[in-house]
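name: query_chain
kind: protein
chains: 1
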Amino acid sequence: MALELQREGLKNVSGRFFEDECFTINEEELVEFEKQFPHKEKKVTETQLKF
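structure:
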């Protein structure tokens, strides 16, 4: 992943991005994992919408 820290910071950068399998989420495993923690209301914040 890349986020420009300044405007047009990646303007002259070329290449390809391959997303690793570690970023793939298995929903069933996620549900089981989250059972280990106290319930917390899920929500989307304004900063998450930027991406």
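note: The chain has a mean pLDDT of 87.
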